[in-house]
Amino acid sequence: MTTSPAVSLDPVNAPYDLVVIGGGSGGVASARRAAAHGAKVALVERDRLGGTCVIRGCVPKKLMMYAAKFGRELAEAGPYGWDVSGAQFNMATWQANKRVEIDRLEGIYSRMLENSGVTVFRGNATVRDAQTVLVDGDHALAAKRILIATGGRANRHAVPGIEQAMTSDDILDLYAIPKRLGVLGAGYIALEFASIMQGLGSEVTVFYRDHLPLRGFDESMRVKLAEALTAQGITLMGHSALRSVARTGDTTVVCAGDATHTFDAVLNATGRSPNVAGLGLEALGVDLNADGAIAVNAWSETSVANVYAVGDVTNRMALTPVAIAEGRALVDNLFTGTRRTVDHGSVATATFTMPPLSTVGLTEAAAHEAFGALRIYETEFRPMKVAFAGGITKTAIKVIVDDATDRVLGVHMLGDDSPEIIQALAVAVTMGATKDDLDKTIAVHPTTAEELVLLREVSRRVPA
Ligand code: NDP
After folding, report:
1. CATH of 18-55+92-154+273-345, one of 3.40.50.10490, 3.40.50.970, 3.40.50.2300, 3.50.50.60
2. What residue owns the CA closest to ligand 1's atom 16?
3. Which pLDDT score, from 0 to 100, does residue 75 have?
4. Which pLDDT score, from 0 to 100, does residue 13 have?
């Protein structure tokens, strides 16, 4: 006698070579790559195709950042001869256009899956056993392998009342700019929205418990970013332990340290957690890490044979391109016999603050610990465009070099266009470029990026 719930079998009798749970960046990339290898693939998604990045993360965030950046550039346009008086921002217009664009992108994701031959199922997936995924509890998909790519969601537990604050999902759906915005936390999401909302007209206050925002980034660049955000009018409240959040009517009160602060809206940006609830992982015996993420080895294998996990649900490095790379490596291994892994050590990243902070390789502290003696090259300047307009925002560059081998260990850049510049430079750093290689490179003039190949003088030496 069976104790399993009654299920209807998927009409296609042969089991799927791969059933992917989650239609975000990692899941979609894995499913399409597997199908390209000739595998029979199903993908189950309960919400919208595209996941956090496309629907409620990177993409709409960047569209919002562009809206804010136009505002900043309008302010700089006067000295260039433009009269832009009377320019107004209308959040409802942005919101309507953003929705159309996200719908368009979701349609592209859907068509890409269809054209790849991936069968998409809409509903809640649970793993009944290592060979069966249930959709909405009653439709069974037979699976030779299962890939969990369910991403993460905003934490709502840091302090009492924090569930009354907006998350990044909610702030992207606003139709009007709050006059006073409190931001809780000082990671990627907190600082990006602090910058954006300040650029769109909010008075922004950021609360965090460390001495500087962006824990984990290079210390001196954190100082420079804090200075830049402060100069733009954002209030940074470091050493502020959060105590509570309480919403009454149209206002929200944040209790932090010994003081209370009243806002029209509050953004909870106190981190994200892996989406594992309701998947049936405990019964299956899939091990989780202390942070609740699915424990995987370098090949994205879980503790259960034929069950794999990639992306934010593994909390290795919660970045879209990393999830995609992990998924593609896994699927290549499964269907072509390779044994590839993803190097998480040289991943370039950017926080889309204004100005953005972009980085590839090691921080000074991490480089010192791993390599000992270092040469540090630093420069800070007002770019031509800013200086002409009488602006004050500086661009800062820091290059960290292993003194023994001349190898470039890390590059950090705070300034407009730094995400684009770091992306290109990441190729050289990943290939093991030396400082001499940078020196031998002829500059493109006049650009901001040329400063990276014109750093002749050592700014500081860090002894072993
Ligand atoms: P982060 O981990 O970057 O930041 C979380 C912030 O919340 C930190 O400042 C942390 O402080 C604070 N925090 C956590 N718990 C508490 C608490 N109990 N009380 C007070 N403060 C608290 O998470 P995000 O949610 O900003 O981003 C999640 C991930 O998404 C990032 O790690 C990143 O990988 C990815 N992401 C990437 C982006 C990009 O590439 N541009 C953009 C957005 C997200 P503390 O430092 O003191 O722990």
Report:
1. 3.50.50.60
2. 270
3. 87
4. 59
Which of the four pLDDT bands, split at 50, 70 and 90, describes residue 3?
very low
Q: Determine the distance separating the centroid of ligand 1 and the alpha carbon of 351, expressed in angstroms.
A: 11
For ligand 1, pick from 243, 270, 312, 315 the residue to mutate: most ligand atoms within 8 Å of CB.
270
DSSP character for 457? S
Q: What residue owns the CA closest to ligand 1's atom 38?
A: 188
Q: Which residue has the tokens 């009944």?
A: 128
Q: Which residue's CA lies nearest to atom 41 of ligand 1? A: 351
Residue nearest to atom 2 of ligand 1 (CA): 271
- Measure 272 CA to ligand 1 centroid, in angstroms: 7
Q: Exposure string (b/e) for 26-50, b if CB count within 10 Å is 16 or more?
A: bbbbbbbbbbeeebbbbbbbbebbb
Spell out which residues line ligand 1, taking CB within 6 angstroms: 158, 185-190, 192, 208-210, 215, 242, 269-272, 318-319, 349-352
Residue 464 CA, chain-centre distance (Å), reads 34
Residues shown for the chain:
464
CA distance to 26, 85, 243, 355, per residue, from 54 (Å): 12, 34, 33, 23
Mean pLDDT score of the chain, rounded to an integer? 95
Report the number of secondary-structure helices (H) and strands (E) in the chain.
Answer: 13, 24
* Beta-carbon count within 10 A of 104 CB: 9
Ligand 1 atom having least distance to the Cα of 159: 18
Q: Is 368 a catalytic residue?
A: no
How many angstroms separate the alpha carbon of residue 309 from the centre of ligand 1?
22
Q: How many other C-beta atoms lie within 10 A of the C-beta of residue 418?
A: 26
**162-270, what's its fold?**
FAD/NAD(P)-binding domain (3.50.50)
CATH of the domain spanning 355-459 = 3.30.390.30
Quick one: which atom of ligand 1 is closest to the CA of 57? 43
- This prediction has a pTM of 0.95
* Candidate of 189, 206, 326, 422 to mutate for ligand 1, largest count of ligand atoms within 8 Å of Cβ: 189
Which helix (H) or strand (E) segment holds residue 101: the answer is helix 91-116
Please, are residues 280 and 137 in contact by the beta-carbon 8 Å criterion? no
Is 199 buried (19+), middle (13-18) or exposed (0-12) by CB count in 10 A? Answer: buried
pLDDT at 6: 44
Which residue in 281, 275, 267, 231 sits closest to 392, CA to CA? Answer: 231
Catalytic residue among 37, 139, 344, 445: 445
Task: Indicate where the chain has its CATH 3.50.50.60 domain(s).
Answer: 18-55+92-154+273-345, 162-270
